[in-house]
């Protein structure tokens, strides 16, 4: 009998099953090397006493989001808004996956895409029909997969949930790497949705899911108070309290 199928995660119970079945060693995939870099001249490390600057929160957030996965984190820190500096940093990366935050849009300081190309990389796609997280970019640099997330922490969180974590699970050999939506009952009415799929920050209260009143992607505290994301498909009709919706639970 097959005790543990290929692609299943080695949970404590499965390790016990393997041991009981007489297996002292199991074949596994290597840990995934993930390099994380934040970009932006306005950023300073967390804990800095520079009150005029913006504390960099994406790096620690992403590292915490990946802590339960088989990864080795390579912290590239804060990279400046400088084409040559970004190019050199990208060219020196030795990792399976490079994750950047910020600099992936179209402003004067959005240099991640040209820096990736200058380092010899390529862009597979840029901009997605997602809210929050539209300016995400994906590409390659030699054997390294590159995912460039928006600098806004809420957008970075949502895109990391939907793209970074599943990609790492896939690289680690997972048979089903994607997050699994579950049904829930809405606690209040929701308006019709636009052309992008929307992931609303929400909380489960008394068995019903309540979307936060303010969904602006700059509202990091709203995300911190959320326990789930409500999935609103593109062009979804208005929904009423008591209707069913799909959600993704947050750790």
Give structural notes:
- The protein is α/β, with parallel strands linked by helices and 251 residues long.
- The chain is built from six helices and 14 strands.
- It has helices at residues 12-20, 58-65, 83-91, 112-118, 153-171, 220-224; strands at 32-39, 43-44, 54-55, 71-79, 97-101, 122-126, 130-131, 137-141, 144-149, 182-185, 197-205, 208-211, 228-232, 244-249.
- The strands form three sheets. It has a six-stranded mixed beta sheet with strand order 4-1-5-9-8-6, with helices on both faces.
- A hairpin with a 2-residue loop joins strand 11 and strand 12 (208-211).
- The protein is globular.
- The two termini are 34 Å apart.
List its salient traits.
alpha/beta; 6-stranded mixed beta sheet; 23% helix; 251 residues; 14 strands
Helix content: 10-25%
Radius of gyration: 20 Å
| Cα end-to-end separation | 34 Å
How many strands, which pairing sense, and closed or not: the largest β-sheet?
Answer: 6 strands, mixed
Overall 3D form: globular
Structural class: alpha/beta
Strand percentage, roughly? 25-35%
Average pLDDT taken over every residue:
95
The quaternary state of the protein chains shown equals single chain
H and E order: HEEEHEHEHEEEEHEEEHEE
The largest beta-sheet arranges its strands as 4-1-5-9-8-6
User: Helix tally?
Assistant: 6
Q: Please count the beta strands (DSSP E, at least 2 residues each).
A: 14
The low-pLDDT segments are none
């Amino acid at each position: 009998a097959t005790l543990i199928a290929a692609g299943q995660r080695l949970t404590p119970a499965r390790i016990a099953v393997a041991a009981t079945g007489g297996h002292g060693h199991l074949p596994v995939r290597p840990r995934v090397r993930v390099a994380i870099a934040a970009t932006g001249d306005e950023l300073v490390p967390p804990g800095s006493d520079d009150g005029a600057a913006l504390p960099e929160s994406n790096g620690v957030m992403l590292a915490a989001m990946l802590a339960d996965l088989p990864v080795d984190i390579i912290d590239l820190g804060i990279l400046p808004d400088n084409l040559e500096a970004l190019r050199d940093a990208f060219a020196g990366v030795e990792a399976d996956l490079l994750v950047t935050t910020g600099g992936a849009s179209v402003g004067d300081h959005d240099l991640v895409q040209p820096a990736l190309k200058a380092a010899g990389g390529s862009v597979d796609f840029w901009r997605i029909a997602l809210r929050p997280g539209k300016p995400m970019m994906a590409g390659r640099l030699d054997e390294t997969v590159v995912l460039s997330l928006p600098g806004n922490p809420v957008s970075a969180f949502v895109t990391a949930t939907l793209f970074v974590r599943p990609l790492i699970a896939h690289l680690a050999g997972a048979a089903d790497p994607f997050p699994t939506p579950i049904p829930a009952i809405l606690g209040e009415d929701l308006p019709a949705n636009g052309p992008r799929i929307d992931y609303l920050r929400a909380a489960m209260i008394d068995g019903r899911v309540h979307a936060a009143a303010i969904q602006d992607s700059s509202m990091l505290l709203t995300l911190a108070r959320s326990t789930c994301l409500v999935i609103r498909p593109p062009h979804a009709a208005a929904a009423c309290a008591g209707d069913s919706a799909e959600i993704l639970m947050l750790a």
